[in-house]
Amino acid sequence: MANFGKYVRLLHSAEAVAEFQACFGLEKINKARPQEEDHAASEDEQQNGKLPVASSTKESSVHKRKHVDSQHLQNSTSSSFENDEMELDTTDTVIIKNKIWYYLFCFGAELGNKYFYLVFYPFFMWNFSAWLLRRAIYVWVVTMYLGQAAKELIKMPRPSCPPAIKMERRYETEYGMPSTHAMVGVLMPFTLLLSSIGRFEYPFLLGLIVAIFWTSIVVMSRMYLGMHSLLDVIAGITAGTLLMTMMFPFLNVIDDWVLNSKMAPFVILLLILVSTLVFPRDSKKWRETHADTLNITSISGGIAIGSWINTYIGMLVPYTGSLPYVLSLPSLLTIGVMLLRMVVGVPLLLLIDEILTFCIRNTMAKLLGVPLNKKTKRLALIELPHRFGAYFTMTVVCVTISPLTFQYLGLDPHGPYMDL
């Protein structure tokens, strides 16, 4: 038992995370000196090819935001990207020695964030296969909900800083065990891959390579960005794999019920409500875990109910052709139509999100008799209705209204679309 505890501490150590970060070219330099010392030393620093943090931060903060996603370092006071440096807060600066790894792992982190879902889910549904996406969504919502709940129950902290370098400030208030990024990094590509067997004909080895690459960069990004220990990542991979394996045999049954049961919309809405109410939380402190979990259940519920509506009105009809369907490279015209759908559809979803967010927040604030500010936005009676209303409606529109819009604009002229 003593050896087991030793191995657990080793796998969860922040020192191991710091060593991993150093292997891929991240290095934290000493704390910034007082302003008078910075001025005296600026000439020597410039001769050595390094700009003092104080002089470069303000000029480069806007430039840096173009390279680092808004999810990264969201609560940092300022940052610098000049000379491969990034300021994490008012005192700590990190040198990025290898930008290739940096951009690759930042991209990997985004494969588990909401902006990825906003682009990937509509693209996959509008341009490829709603049938495949729904199956991935069923596994995603169950796995992510259980993973987020486990964080609140286990309450294991993230790697300490120092020695680790935390590169995603928005997750600092969350616990770390298990890594839900690792869970979704496993379940999303491999559920799509396994569900496609027998449905589509394509080079399976290529699909397997893509799935492994997807999983690898998501998992490694969590340690590279200093947000999870090796133990968190291993737990996430294991839990994600087990839950995906357990659910996979039932995906066709679940999908058939969602599309054809008259009770499906009511049961799904009830599940969203109950899962929100029973989700474990600390009543004294709001965490991003709560908001992210409601986002996930609302998006999943919106896709399921939107698909039910399409089936009910005859917009979604079962595919009757021969299987497997042979995939081929799209023509330039097809690629152009795909891009136009995204250009039309995604701004529509963003507009709906902004309008509903503004309306729901202000309405709830007036009903509660409180001013709307950064603090009151976190009140459960403001945050929860806003999250559900905006994300649920946005995904229903994505599934139902957007295809009708594409037909009207001539971007999908075939009428009811096959559920391929």
Summed up, what is this model?
It contains 16 helices and 7 strands.
Describe this structure in words.
- The chain has 16 helices and 7 strands.
- The protein has a 3-stranded antiparallel β-sheet with strand order 1-3-2. It has a two-stranded parallel sheet with strand order 4-6.
- A hairpin with a 5-residue loop joins strand 2 and strand 3.
Number of strands: 7
Spans of at least 5 consecutive residues whose pLDDT stays below 50 are 32-91
Shape: globular
Strand order of the largest sheet: 1-3-2
Name the beta content range.
5-15%
Mean pLDDT: 79
Rg value: 23 Å
| Helix-strand topology string | HHEHHEEHHHHEHHHHHEEHHHE
What's the helical proportion of residues? 55-70%
Individual helix count: 16
**Span between termini:** 52 Å
Give the class from helix and strand content and strand pairing: mainly alpha
Task: Outline the biggest β-sheet.
Answer: 3 strands, antiparallel
Q: Key terms for this structure?
A:
single chain; 420 residues; mainly alpha; two-stranded parallel ribbon; 16 helices; 5% strand
Map the helices and strands.
Elements (H helix, E strand, L loop, with lengths): L1 H10 L2 H10 L2 E4 L5 H13 L5 H15 L17 E3 L5 E4 L2 H12 L3 H14 L2 H25 L25 H17 L3 E2 L2 H21 L5 H18 L3 H10 L3 H15 L9 H25 L3 E3 L6 E2 L5 H37 L11 H20 L1 H8 L8 E3 L1
Parallel strand pairs: 4-6, 5-7
Antiparallel strand pairs: 1-3, 2-3
Helix pairs in contact: 5-9, 6-14, 7-8, 7-10, 7-11, 7-13, 8-9, 8-10, 12-13, 13-15, 14-15
